[in-house]
Write a structure and sequence with these properties.
The model has no long low-confidence stretch (mean pLDDT about 85). The protein is built from eight helices and no strands. By secondary structure, the chain is an all-alpha fold.
């Protein structure tokens, strides 16, 4: 298959695995492998909707509005110097989600996922001063690190989850390079930042 034919597939992968899905996947893992699986489905749905609003819908809408206001395409946001405000928008959205979860006394491990995702955003924003990091890879790295950490905490076998996530990470990293949005070093750095940050934040918190 030629590179030209692979471009639509790469775009689809980038759209499907956006950087904001880390908290949602973390919540699903919690509901599947921890004592939180005993919670009523209505409560689980409420948690998922709350998480979706503050970590996916709100930052996506605000960043899209910011981009349209400046007349930028998605490729403009790929430039390192134009990524600061989107980082700030997503960090503030995640902070709002965390404070609402604490105010409503959500279980500890739920807010820990938001804190981990928030730390990933902050670290990526700091590194952005010197190097453009792939936030897509930071997110999939964070998912992988989070599943690994929860497997230690709850003592479940996560080998299949980790295998699937690593395969997705490889496909996603390849897609980002095919789209000429990141270099190999930016891909690898993003994955490592997400994995290490999430793994240790979840274990410590």
């Amino acid at each position: 298959m030629s590179e030209k034919k692979l471009i639509p597939v790469a775009r689809m992968l980038s759209l499907l695995f956006t950087p904001f899905y880390l908290p949602i996947v973390g919540m699903i893992a919690l509901f599947a492998f921890s004592y939180l699986s005993l919670l009523p489905w209505q409560y689980k749905l409420y948690v998922v909707i709350t998480t979706y609003f503050f970590t996916i819908l709100l930052p996506t809408v605000l960043i899209h509005s910011y981009r349209k206001y400046h007349g930028w395409s998605l490729y403009h946001l790929g430039k390192r110097e134009k990524r600061l405000i989107p980082y700030i928008i997503s960090i503030l959205s995640y902070l709002a989600c965390y404070h609402i979860m604490r105010w409503m006394h959500f279980p500890h491990f739920m807010s820990a996922i938001i804190v981990a995702a928030l730390f990933v955003q902050v670290v990526c924003a700091m590194i952005n001063n010197w190097l453009k990091v792939s936030t897509h890879m930071a997110a999939i790295g964070g998912m992988t690190g989070g599943v690994a950490a929860f497997s230690f905490i709850f003592g479940f076998n996560a080998i299949w989850w980790l295998s699937v996530l690593i395969i997705i990470a490889g496909l996603l990293g390849t897609a980002r390079m095919l789209l000429r949005l990141h270099t190999l070093s930016e891909i690898c750095t993003g994955f490592l930042v997400g994995f290490v940050t999430t793994f240790f934040v979840v274990l410590i918190i």
